[in-house]
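Human: Respectfully, please carefully check these C-alpha cells:
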Amino acid sequence: MVTEKHFKPKELAELWGFSTDTIRAWFDLEPGILIEHRPETMHKRGYKSMRIPESIARRVYESRLQKS
C-alpha cells in the first residue's frame, strides 16, 4: 500500500535493539522491500538504500519472536 509507513533499516534497528547490519540481513531477500541500488563508479562509491513497509516489518518481527 502506498500510504503505508516505510522504515529505514536504522530506524528498525533502534526500535528493536539490533544492529543495522542485522536488520539489513533479515530483510535483504524479503519480497516487497523497496531497494534502490546505485553501482559504484570511478568517482563515487556504490550504495543500496532500503525501505521496509510496516506490514512486512511487523510480519518478520513476529516471525523472529516465534523462533526464540
Remarks:
- The CA atoms of residues 11 and 44 lie 25 Å apart.
